Task: structure prediction
Amino acid sequence: MRQIQKALDVIAVLLLWLGAATMILMMLQIMAEVVLRTFFRSTIPGTEEIVSAYYMIGCAFLPLAWVQRSRGHVMVTVFTMWLPPRPAAALDAAAYLVCAVATGIFAYAGLHEAMAMTREREILIGTMDVVVWPSRWFVPLGLAGMLLYLVLQAVADLTWAVKGGEPRLAPVTSEH
Result:
């Protein structure tokens, strides 16, 4: 199980860095747009389209695997914080499996949409035409990474809850 987690960690780090790159590029382009508008009464054509179709999607979806890697998504523990560790792990596993099903449905829908928009070579028409079909792949990529962690963590938690032995896959702190 640890080898699978290590392989997933490589993918999560890559997706995290791609998400970070989209955020940095978004900040730089918006700053340049503001400077050009303020001092030169000019703009960068397509900024609004590029920001909304690429950067915002990349920032939101690409890091999802990293967030799930560290179990950083919202968990409501009001009713479970007093449970013994093994029943709490079983409940966490059940919650992860339900989330995995929902995430799988969203990932499938995103994949279906990305394939359709790739076939159509989708563009966004605004101040200039922007090819946006490549950004449609950010959604299924990010969700697939999250889904893999949800399944891995559910199996690890359920195994530990039933058998004991090797400790649960703990939330991972950043060592990258």
User: Anything to note?
Assistant: The chain has a mean pLDDT of 91. The chain is about 70% helix and 5% strand.
